Amino acid sequence: MSGAVWTSRLLSDSRRQIDKFHFVGDVFGLESGDEYLCSAEAIEDTVVAIYPRHIFESVSPADAVLSGQLVTALGHSLSRAREHMLLLGCKTAIEKIAAFLLSLADRLKNTVLTRPMTRLDIADHLGLTIETVSRSFTHLEREGLIETGTGRRSISLRDMRGLRQLDA
Amino acid sequence: MSGAVWTSRLLSDSRRQIDKFHFVGDVFGLESGDEYLCSAEAIEDTVVAIYPRHIFESVSPADAVLSGQLVTALGHSLSRAREHMLLLGCKTAIEKIAAFLLSLADRLKNTVLTRPMTRLDIADHLGLTIETVSRSFTHLEREGLIETGTGRRSISLRDMRGLRQLDA
DNA sequence: CGCATCATTGAGCTCGCTCAACCGTCGTGG
DNA sequence: CCACGACGGTTGAGCGAGCTCAATGATGCG
User: Fold this and answer.
1) Which nt has its C1' nearest the CA of A137?
2) Could you tell me the distance in Å between the CA of residue A91 and the C1' of nucleotide D21?
3) Span B53-80, average pLDDT
4) Is the CB of B110 under 7 A from strand C?
5) Are B1 and B111 in contact (CB under 8 A)?
6) What is the pTM of this model?
7) Phi, psi (rounded to 5 degrees) for B133
8) A25 touches strand C (CB under 7 A)
């Protein structure tokens, strides 16, 4: 309903993969099995609406609409996951950063991003290290493609075309 | 129904990410948007059953069961995708190969794998190169964890515990 | 037998990682 | 109000896992 959350998966030695950042309106936490495999953490003051799982398991005709919405939500999650696998498996560091910024701008409907997430969060989302993320931002800024505000609190995308060109 | 298929996504310069290998009984090709973003290709003689999309879009009460199956299938695809993102984002080459072999053995319910896919397919699935895949197999064989048959047509998993230990 | 395809192996390189120092901002307590 | 410490971010130097390029080997098919 407001705020921001990430969901992640952990490896035994604490390597972390952040699946997705969730903002207002996003649905998350849909798991199929008996146990939850994902962790979730709020990265700023956040309010979420929680629905008990049995709601989704009902098959009564009256819930046909809800069921359809569930299918839609799952479908979106899935295509986003596929997109992200393409990013993780194929793209270079700069391409990953550019793609990340573009997708964020697209989802927030704004070319000025105020990022609640840290460099470490971004790194774990993109399969990079914190230093590589930082260096990539610096590089993009030097090229004039983005502009970081004071305190690195916000990022303005200055050249969408350039960013799209960077993203393969 | 029989055979083997992979689904993949392509980048403009023909870098490829193979999402998943599909075998008998697997459901694939569920896309949410108006256009298909995935390619699919059979890697051996294959027979598939095709269902027109509108079947999944019906919300009539009679289709409640089908709808439930759809949700289940989507849920499985999603959790598999999440698992694969963890692999792509966090794991090393050897860990990727070990995880891949284990998951294949698990899905085929057999520790002897006859692989229809090529080294290039595996590489594009795991975000590696063909040479790294080859070297990893050689390494695992030297360590006695696997055994490759003549012509590299099959791979026997000799030490499941060792492989699981390699996979983080 | 000859060619095509796929796999292996080696040598060298590079992108991104590791390790380490430093900087800026903010919040807290003297 | 300032000093200081904590935290997150930046930058540099060097390293190494995995990539590139190239040669060689195995298998199978016409």
Assistant:
1) D10
2) 21
3) 76
4) no
5) no
6) 0.93
7) -60, -50
8) no
